[in-house]
Amino acid sequence: MKFGKVEHPELIDFSIPQDHPDTEVLFAKYKEEDQPLKVNVGCAKWNRQDLKNFYPRGTKDELAYYSSQFNCIELNATFYRIFPAKTYEGWYEKTPDNFKFFPKIVQNVSHLRRLNEQAYPILEEYLNLTANLKEKLGTMFLQMHNNFSPKDWDRVVRFVENWPKEFSLAMEFRHTDWFNDEKVAQELYHLLEENTIANILVDTAGRRDIMHMRLTNNEAFIRYVGANHESDYSRLDDWVEKLYDWKQKGLKNIHFFVHQNLELESPLLSVYFIQKLNERLNLDLKIPETLIKPNTLF
C-alpha cells in the first residue's frame, strides 16, 4: 500500500493521538457485555511474489499455507474485480474453520460509480457472490476515493441506511474535508454509529489526519501501513498498548491488518505484533513461521 508514503519517515510524528471523546462514551455501552475478545491479525494479500521470505520452498498452494499461519486476510483482490462463485467456494474449502476473510468492496461501487444509483446492482451482485464465504466472511470494507468529498453526503447516507444488516461493514474515508470540518466529521461518525458500521482507522506516514481515533461500533478495524523504517516496530508497540487500553474499557473485536510500502516485509511485522499482543493481552494467537526473524529488517 503506497497511500500516505513519504520519503523521510524519520521526520514523522507517529505518536498515536488521544482517543476521540465519543470513543470512550461508546465503550461504556459495551463494557458490561459478556462477550469474549475476538482478535484477527493478518496481511492484505497472500501472493507469493509480494510476501517473499514467507513461503517455504515447495509450497504449492499459497492460500492454504497462508491460512495455516494467520487467522485472517484483508482481501484486497476483491477491490479490482468481481470473482465468480467457484472462486469464493475454493477459498472457503482451502482455509481452516476459524479463518476469516475481510474483503474490500469492488471499486465499481466506490470509485467508478461513487455510490450513485448505478452502483447498487453491482453491489448486489458482489454481495451475493461474497456470501459464498459463509461463516468465514468477516467485516467487508468500503474504501472511498481520495477525492470523494462531503459534497456527496446524501450518497453516503443512502448507502449506509440501505446496507443489508446481515453483513458487517466498515468504511474508510480519505478526503481531508471529512475530518477538517468538525460538523461534517460529527455527522459522519454519528451516522456510522447509529447503523453499527465500523469507522476504519488508517495509520500511515503521510496522512496523520485520518488517525481520527473515533470508533463507531464495538470493532477496531485498523489498517496499519509500515514505512519500511525501524520506527515500524515502535509504532506496533504503541498499538499493542492502545489495544490493551481499549480492551480494558470494553472493546470486544480487533481486526488489525499489516501493510508495507514493500509488502514482502508485512509477515515479519505481523509476527512481531502478534508476539507482543499475545504477551500484553494474554492471548494465544498462532505465531506465524517466517524465514527471517522479526526485528532484523533494518
TrEMBL record:
Pfam families: DUF72
Classification via InterPro entries: DUF72, UPF0759_sf
Top-rank taxon: Bacteria
Membrane-crossing residue ranges in chain numbering: none
Listed Gene3D superfamilies: Protein of unknown function UPF0759
Descriptive protein name: DUF72 domain-containing protein
Species of provenance: Ulvibacterium marinum
